[in-house]
Every structure is written in C-alpha cells, then in structure tokens.
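Human:
Take a look at this sequence-structure pair and walk me through the tokens.
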Amino acid sequence: MNLKVGIQLYSVRQSLQADPFGTLQKVADAGFKYVEAANHSALENDGVGFEMTAKEMRKALNDLGLSIVGSHINPLNMDRLPDILDYHQELGNNQIGCDIEFFPYNDRDYVLRRCELFNKVGEMCKERGMRYYYHNHYQEFQKFGDETVYEIIMKNTDPSLVFIEMDTYWITRAGQDPLKLIEKYKDRLVLLHQKDFPKESPQPINMYDGIIDSTQSIDSNLFSETKNPNCFSEIGTGILPIQNIIDCAKTAPNLEYILLEQDCTNLDEIDSINISMEHFKKYSGITWK
C-alpha cells in the first residue's frame, strides 16, 4: 500500500501564528490533505489561534478538505489530558503523541518512570479507541550502560499501548540507520516524519561527531542552541535516502502516513512547503490522495 503524504504543521508555525485559517487554506491549496498538529492542546491558544470547539474546528478542516491524523501534546498533563483527548476524539483525530517534553533524561530510573507515564497515557487513549505515540529526536540514542534510551523506552512500554512516530532525520543525526530501526520496530510504527539534510552543511550529519558529547546531559536549551537552521533543506533536495526509507517503511503493517516536516528554512514557509511537495513527487510508493 502506498503511504499517504501529509504535513506536520510545525513547518508553518510562524504563518499559523500570523494568520491561522489563511495558512491552513494555503496548506490545502498546496495540495496537502493530511495534517498533524503541533502542540495544540485544544483548551488554550498556544500561540496558534485555534480558539474553537472541536465541532467547529472539525467543520473548518472539512471545509478545507483537510484531515487531522495526529497531534503532539506537550506536556502530558494528566489532569488536563482527559479533556484534551475528548476534544481530539470529537475532532476526528484518533492518535496523539509527545516528543521533546522530558529532556534531559538524567538517568535510567528517570526514563523508566517516563515509561510508566507513557503506558498510562496509552491506556487512556486505548479506552477511547485512540492511540498514543512517541516521537524521537537524537537524544534517545544516548546510552545508559549497553542500552540506548530508545531501547529502554521500547522494552519498558506496552506495545499495545505505546506506538512510535519515527523521525528519520533525527535518527540519522544520532548516527543511527533509520532503515534498520524501521525494520526492528515496524509493528509499532504508526507515523513517519521526513525531513532532509542539505548537501552542504555547517555541521556533520552526526550530532555526536564533535557537536555534542554523547554522554552530555542535553536539555531543551542545549538542544536549541546546537540545532543549526542551516542543517535543514527542503525535503527531496538533500542527501537523505528518502526512497529507501519509503520502500522500507511500506512494510510496516500499521503505517499509513508519511509526514513532511520543515524545522527551519531560509525561505517563506509557504514557499518552502510547496518546494518540498514538488520535489517529493519524484518518489514512488506514495500518494497525495
């Protein structure tokens, strides 16, 4: 089955802040039909501007021909999460995830406590017929002993409760092979993030190759300080083996969507996503419908 191509709305976050519905219209005009929200908690503005009921938001998306296929919820506030899940269920979104909200990892016990939380969130989602997924960056491939943080998460969370959204860019920037990880964890893979790395870059592709010590404690500030905007290219214009990734990911039984994500660009955000879309059309094994 071909993977459906969508977009993570973090790619147009500045445009959304300035003109929420005008930006969604431009996303739809570009030809995207599937969107993943970026930290829209549903109950407050979050700098995006969607102060609408779930029913109103669902109608607005439908009118634009857009479907929501996931949403990052950071932080995982257990007091507010039931209402957030209810909102997303009414919105028509059947899965929510989290990513950077628990850096730094501190120690193995801390990671294990987060695994307990992820299982609880997964159970809350399952009770509603929804799924919870975890999104990686490069920090998950630091090690405690012989195991990476990612391995600890995968071994200590319930596969029926905690799924994954692999970000192949950040896997590569951790010095890992995304094809091997897709194959290893394909049964839990429900969403795939695809960025691209430029042919000429101010940093080596591996973040642990002289940029950050692999044993260093990486908090959100250090992550932001070392995230070079010039290490991203419009998707399909760089050096990542995207066709190989698509071919490998198509074997994942629960994967339906590959989501384009542009963390940083020197272009206008709307121009950037249009360029990525045009370049992405050269790949096989995908569909825009």
